[in-house]
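Request: Have a read of the protein record below and say how the chain folds.
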Amino acid sequence: MGESTETIFRLLRTTFGLKSLSEGHDKPVALFSLARNCVVHNACIAGSELEKASGGLFQNGSRIIIDRLFVMRAIAVFRVAAEEIDSLSTSVHSKAFSK
């Protein structure tokens, strides 16, 4: 099993030197990741982690429905997080190579 979203963000901040990575991405990325996992691995049946992360939007044991708006929000969240990670990592690596 892969690392949790929380663990991945912690590693990005500590191990990979992206200390200034905004924590504002953590919860939305975790929510959309759990929703994706629910669709792909659990036949669209929500688990307790997804229920908790969604603040009750999805109920444990219930079939989830992902609409176009949800998908568009997920794309936007992942895009913004990826752009920030890319920008920070480019900055960190540029500083390392300029020494």
Summary: Residues 5-97 form one domain. The radius of gyration is 16 Å. The chain is about 65% helix and 0% strand. The CA atoms of residues 29 and 77 lie 7 Å apart.
